[in-house]
Design a protein that fits this description.
7-stranded mixed β-sheet; two-stranded parallel sheet; alpha/beta; 12 helices; globular; 12% strand
Length: 373
């Protein structure tokens, strides 16, 4: 039993290390093409009880340095019980480029947020749909820079999203959350550079309207509560010939806030983990191997109480894991102009072991809550 565990651990450690080396190599050489001629953009935002974010969102979006004749905003008030709808209507009266759609019910067969986005796309006239969320903050050249990545064969562009600190939040906890969230962008960017994009964040992503129509929207995933971002990405990657690029320019970096409570964090991570078996086999297998890799650390820890040699192997594995992740994330950091604190990587790497094992198992037995339901 112990010998089998050692063999599995060593093989998984070697595989993980080789993967990080390859990821680092590919992202280091990634340099997508750009163009000056900008497409007509439709910026789409779905809002559910977001009255506290509407003013900041509007200030962020209406400052965009983009040709006015090539830009429209479509805001979907999705069953809000607060003042969100009225606030959006007021902005639409003041700005001819703003359209507002009101949804007052739930439709069977399609998840609420996907229905909201789909409704906006149907009303849009833009060549490119640029998605973001109500709690996001955008640099002035965000839309312009995202649009510049749509060269002739590009059908989808993924963008960088990072956490912004809330006043009064714990420094160490925030840095851990920020690093954890940055890892999603790191994986997204590096897998795009490998020509097999695996994930993305819906707060900052864009695609051609034609691609959405060509794929019949969310297709078989339309009734799944989450996945308006990465599950749609899977469809573009696997069911079309369009290229997918990652926007590495600093001007495309969008900020959002971390979960404000443990309950919100818990449900968010359950939601992230819940889609593991809905990905194509190649992605699911990679996630399963990653889970087994982290699980093997915990098993080694348990058995190391009876064997000094196993404890030495455990420490060696952690050191290799920390060094490999530091090298990889450092390279992505330089590409995406992030300010994440790498001094906490040793802490994060160890916590990540328990984090992956727990949420990977918990999502099989627990359901998550989502505010838009």
């Amino acid at each position: 039993m112990v010998n089998i565990l050692i063999l599995i651990f060593v093989l998984l450690l070697i595989g993980y290390s080789i993967s990080l080396i390859y990821f680092t190599y590919k992202i280091d050489r990634y340099d997508p093409a750009r163009k000056k001629d900008l497409p007509f953009l439709s910026i789409v935002v779905s809002l559910h009880n977001e009255e506290g974010n509407v003013k900041t969102l509007m200030k962020s979006l209406l400052q965009q340095e983009y040709p006015e004749e090539k830009l429209e905003y479509i805001f979907v008030n999705d069953r809000s019980k607060d003042k969100t709808g009225g606030m959006l209507d007021k902005y639409s009266v003041e700005n001819k480029n703003i359209k507002v759609i009101h949804i007052n019910d739930i439709q069977n067969g399609i998840a609420p947020k996907k229905r909201a986005i789909n409704s906006a796309i149907k009303k849009s006239i833009g060549e490119v749909i640029l998605l973001t969320d109500a709690d996001a903050q955008h640099p002035k050249k965000w839309a312009k820079t995202m649009g510049s990545y749509f060269t002739e064969k590009v059908g989808m562009v993924l963008g960088n999203v990072q956490y912004k600190k809330m006043s009064g939040s714990n420094n160490l906890l925030f840095e851990l959350l920020k690093l954890d969230f940055f890892t999603i962008s790191a994986i997204a960017a590096s897998t795009v550079s490998m020509k097999y994009p695996a994930t993305c964040i819906g707060t900052n992503m864009a695609f051609r309207k034609h691609v959405y129509e060509q794929l019949n929207g969310y297709g078989k995933y339309k009734n799944i509560q989450s996945g308006d971002d990465d599950l749609f990405l899977q469809r573009v990657r696997d069911e079309s010939d369009w290229k997918i690029e990652y926007a590495i320019d600093e001007n495309t970096k969008v900020f959002t806030f971390p979960p404000s409570s443990w309950r919100q964090f818990y449900n968010q991570r359950l939601r992230f983990a819940s889609k593991g078996f809905k990905y194509p086999f190649r992605v699911t297998l990679s996630l399963l191997l990653l889970y087994l890799f982290n699980l093997s650390f915990i098993l080694l820890l348990l058995f190391s109480f009876w064997s000094h040699n196993l404890f030495v192997l455990l420490v060696f594995g952690i050191v290799i894991k920390v060094i490999g992740e530091h090298i990889f994330l450092s390279k992505v950091k330089s590409k995406l102009s992030s300010d994440v604190n790498f001094g906490i990587i040793p802490i994060a790497s160890i916590l990540h072991i328990f984090y992956v094992v727990y949420f990977g198992a918990a999502t099989q037995f627990q359901s998550y809550e989502w505010g838009s339901n």
